[in-house]
């Protein structure tokens, strides 16, 4: 799969900033041009949000962050980029001017994506000398967490450009959908616009407040949409007879007055003031930054829940996240691991994710086992037991765990785990993991585990091969010089 080697972002506002963060966290260098005097601060805040979110989203090893450079001219930013993303304000004249300037200075084979929410690519490419490389790459806010990009070609966009654009998205954790025909606002914004129009009428006509309207979405179909969209949801709503029954039952409603969709509400001063006031009341003093933080934590929780969907295989955006994490492990798992066997191996760095916090306001107990399990997995990769090894039919299985809870881990807290091998032989691997608060070093929990080397196809324990055993024994020998960790060998109910 071809990867982006260097990106240029023209415009670094809400969406440009999100693209910049997405690229940087995927390890891609980014050059930015944005004449706004505070562009550096604004982009910096988006990147900080993105870093916080990713620390909660995944324990997989992200590549080293790309290099960020602000350029004094557009030409300097685009000159050696192979993906250029235009995210300037939604005005056709401005976008055409900017795209023509990009076209004049970019490498001939650079891909040029526009973030436009609704302008036609054919209109955008009108003045370009090489229009075949221009396409719409319409993302969703926040770009660093929401993975979808609508890819739309114009009359002069080449099929090779569309193919190349689609191929470059999975390595940055995104999913491209190719929209077959160009149409204003593509697919997503067509749907959102329909909902938005109807919502404005409902407020205008005093049917409900903005808060009630949002509650109707977030407590009901909003939850459904994150996982099954519209058609699959309605298929289920048709009962055992499925979609055909659903259409037969609810088809006639389409002719009833259930919508004011074709009328455009007059956004006059009174309506703007009404919506503004109700929106202020709904926010209840929370700043935009605070709302962004809550939004990001919620999105992380939803993505993680979807990652466990369909019996652990992952579902929808969660499956995409799972696949992305597997590629991160395959690409960087081994390299980034610090290996100094003269002390316990620091193997997992993470932050307490929203989905991990329970009704007591701290990390819930089974998440400790998750972090300790991840620590054992990291140790196994280090000694050569990676996905290829497992697929070939051998692995280590955990047969016993003893976790002690000694402190608390709160939402967003940076934590890390360290592993000491207590003993190892041909089949057994006896480890002791310690979970620390990264800021203070305080020990929050420990886990002692016994793992057995298995032939997973035969379903029985077998001796580990010499290559794996050699690495295990080398670490175990170094760790034998360390003091036995406090708590090793303890059992539940033991007197101190
Ligand atoms: N805000 C949203 O929810 C979404 C917006 N979009 C699209 O993304 C594009 C950008 O929108 P936002 O980021 O929301 O706007 P924004 O107003 O937050 O950012 C636009 C940025 O472009 C910069 N800019 C203006 N003229 C420029 C030029 N000549 N060269 C370089 N930079 C220039 C501005 O200084 C500003 O930082 C629009 O096409 C919009 O339709 C797409 C998806 C969602
Ligand atoms: C409001 N908007 C049209 C700019 C929204 C989008 O384009 C996508 C989104 O993030 O909702």
UniProtKB/TrEMBL annotation:
Residue ranges of domain 3-hydroxyacyl-CoA dehydrogenase C-terminal in the record: 186-252
Subcellular location: Cytoplasm
Binding site for NAD(+): 11-16
GO biological process, any: carnitine metabolic process
Any one GO CC term of the record: cytoplasm
Keyword Cytoplasm: yes
UniProt keyword list: Cytoplasm, NAD, Oxidoreductase, Plasmid
Domain 3-hydroxyacyl-CoA dehydrogenase NAD binding: from-to ranges: 6-182
Domain of life of the organism encoding this protein: Bacteria
Catalytic reaction(s) noted: carnitine + NAD(+) = 3-dehydrocarnitine + NADH + H(+)
Molecular-function GO terms, alphabetical: carnitine 3-dehydrogenase activity; NAD binding
Keyword Metal-binding belongs to the record: no
Similarity-based family: Belongs to the 3-hydroxyacyl-CoA dehydrogenase family. L-carnitine dehydrogenase subfamily.
Function: Catalyzes the NAD(+)-dependent oxidation of L-carnitine to 3-dehydrocarnitine.
Subunit structure, as described in the record: Homodimer.
Name used for this protein in its record: L-carnitine dehydrogenase
Lineage of the organism: Bacteria, Pseudomonadati, Pseudomonadota, Alphaproteobacteria, Hyphomicrobiales
